[in-house]
Amino acid sequence: MTTPRELDGANAGGQFVRTALALSVRTNEPVRLENVRGDRPTPGLRHQHLAVLQTLAEVCDADVSGAELGAETVAFDPGLEGHGGLEGGEYAVDIGTAGSATLLCNALLPLATVLESPLSVTVTGGTDVAWSPPLDYLRYVKLPLVRRFGLEAACEVDRRGFYPEGGGEVTLRLEPSALEPIEIVERGALEALHLYSTESESLADRDVAHRQAEGALERLDSDAPELATRRETAVDSPSPGSAIVIRIDHGTAVAGVSALGERGKPAERVGEEAADAANRFLAGAAPVDRHMADQLLGFLALAGGRLRIPAVTDHVETRCELLEAFGAEIDLEDDGETTLASVSSPLNGVP
Which residues are ATP-binding (predicted)? Predict the structure, then answer.
């Protein structure tokens, strides 16, 4: 029996849990997580982290202990047999709250690189909720970017889920994939901006999606509004809510920013917040936004290559430490304005 890799989450949150479990499957190494979400006010597994653990365990037929709410120690052994990799299939998971469906989908994406057959996972939960990427960021920013490097993934939407009810439903479909080295170093010229402004049908009579888009367009700097297209959508959802995502196309890659509606916050202000984030990105030099920088590091460790990121945030630092614990060698070179992350020896797949 292989000795589990011991990992300490005392100074980390949910990202640590999701990344560690995904890497465990990707490398077929058992792990033991101690002090799960140790730096959070309420440590241990919450609904959305437990859903990730249970989903990965079901897909892999893994041996697991600690799969319960509040657990601060988790043992996970994917137990993939031989050299064959991972069988696909169709699965469904209900997070049970407005816990983030997009974060669960993100945790599953690396599995495409060890799949033998297609995998489909239908997730019920929050699609546009705080502390996680909105659904349109996943659909229109992240997935198009990772598909450029060979990851075959698509996301279908049946229903949106806003806080507090959640109740959204999305299906992530993964195909067996072989990643190519990531090379995103310089930012190209700004080509286009795409505004995806969404409201629940219960807010349609207030023109929330339209007002969000108008607020964003009026706030964007320079000539950016002239390059913008917009899509305003009213969607079915158990809870009232809204979101806006701005995708920024600049030749060498895409970036994205977003904002969520809140009770009492004018829709125009929501759009302005997204535009402010877009303006900050456009004023910098990195080709990806700070959230994408963090999320792409795992793929960089698996595929190798170079990625220029805006800064070494706490999330970036935590993810790098975890990737290095699995054997990745990530070099970070700071030029004073951006940081170049590079990996010359990618992590191995299933042994």
Answer: 291-295
Q: Tell me the per-residue pLDDT of 96-145, one tens digit each, with 9 for 90 and over.
A: 889 999 999 999 999 999 999 999 999 999 999 999 999 999 999 999 99
Shared-domain flag, residues 94 and 174: yes
For residue 137, give the CATH number of its domain.
3.65.10.20
Each residue's pLDDT tens digit, 137-189: 999 999 999 999 999 999 999 999 999 999 999 999 999 999 999 999 999 99
Residues 69 and 129 in one domain: no
Contact by Cβ (8 Å): 272, 212: no
Is residue 67, in this structure, part of any structural domain at all? yes
Whether residue 315 lies in the annotated active site: yes
Q: Which residue ranges make up the annotated binding site for ATP?
A: 291-295
DSSP-assigned letters across all residues of 97-127: SS-BHHHHHHHHGGGGGGBSS-EEEEEEEBS
Task: Indicate whether 335 belongs to any domain.
Answer: no
**pTM of the complete model beyond 0.90:** yes
Tokens in use for 300? 């960089």
DSSP structure string for 209-223: HHHHHHHHHHH--TT
Q: Which residues define the annotated binding site?
A: 291-295
The helix (run of H) or strand (run of E) holding residue 85 is none
231-285 pLDDT per residue, tens: 999 999 999 999 999 999 998 999 999 999 999 999 999 999 999 999 999 999 9
The verdict on residue 330 lying in a domain is no
Backbone angles phi, psi at 118, to 5 degrees: -60, 145
Residue 187 lies in a domain: no
Q: How far is CA 116 from CA 112, 149, 153, 178, in A?
A: 9, 19, 14, 11
Full residue range of the structural domain in which residue 239 is found: 192-283
Residues 51 and 129 in one domain: no
Instruction: Identify the active-site residue in 49, 194, 250, 315.
Output: 315
